[in-house]
Specification:
about 230 residues, alpha/beta, Rossmann fold, six-stranded mixed sheet, two-stranded antiparallel ribbon, 9 helices, about 35% helix, globular, hydrolase, ATP/GTP-binding protein, GTP-binding, Gliding_Motility_GTPase, P-loop_NTPase
């Protein structure tokens, strides 16, 4: 796993460009007169714990509306970055139709951070769920140690592309079935068969709205990644 100090390099950003980006961001902040200092003052700052000895970049993937933004927001110990935007009629011509209650969608990425056991910090990157954004995954997946693939039993077929893309990118992953109130219950064997999962791929049930449930899904992934790395060494 990457050390906490190396987390930026794990994301595929070199130190020089990182410094330049920080300078650009600082200049942009100074130029933004619309920013409210009071809003910034009210935002709590949570630094990485001094006990942390390792860090990992983790992708959270799945089709549109599966609960990626919700899961990251549920577990993140910092204020998550979310790029949710209102869905428009123009996008409806390109994206797969979702339920009427879904009125926003991620247009870039989600970002959050969670520390496990006081020693390992996970940097969570949620990918856009639309099919047209799959090419951008190569950049988001750079430096990722693994991925949590969320699926919805109400539309398992919608998850095929996401799982297949992880396999193409050779990113180790586990699967978490997000339990919606009206989800259809299936046996683990049936789910594995429908999703064409290898025997060693973890499969868990979670509720992206519940902190404990979502953390368990991430722990299952991390355990799988540790076992994979140990077997390969």
């Amino acid at each position: 796993m990457n050390s906490a100090k190396d987390v930026d390099s794990g994301g595929g950003v070199d130190s020089k460009s990182g410094v330049d980006d920080m300078k650009d961001d600082a200049d942009a902040d100074k130029a933004d007169d619309s920013a409210d200092p009071d809003d910034l003052a009210d935002t709590p700052v949570m630094y990485v714990q001094s006990s942390v000895s390792g860090a990992a970049k983790i992708l959270v993937v799945g089709p549109m509306g599966v609960g990626k933004t919700t899961l990251i927001g549920t577990v993140s110990e910092i204020k998550p970055l979310s790029t949710e935007a209102t869905m428009t009629k123009a996008g409806a011509r390109l994206d797969t139709a979702v339920r009427p209650s879904k009125i926003t969608t991620t247009v870039a990425l989600d970002f959050g951070r969670i520390t496990l056991g006081g020693e390992l910090v996970l940097y969570l990157f949620g990918t856009p769920g639309q099919q047209r954004f799959l090419p951008a995954w190569k950049d988001l997946a750079r430096g990722a140690l693994g991925a949590l693939a969320l699926v919805d039993t109400r539309d398992l077929e919608a998850s095929f592309d996401a799982i297949g893309h992880l396999e193409d990118l050779d990113v180790p992953f586990s699967v978490a079935v997000n339990a919606f109130p009206d989800s259809v219950l299936h046996s683990e064997d049936d789910l594995r068969s429908a999703l064409d999962l290898l025997p060693h791929t973890p499969l868990v049930i979670c509720d992206a709205r519940e902190h404990k449930s979502s953390v368990k899904a991430l722990i299952s992934l991390v355990t799988h990644l540790i076992e994979t790395i140990t077997e390969a060494s």
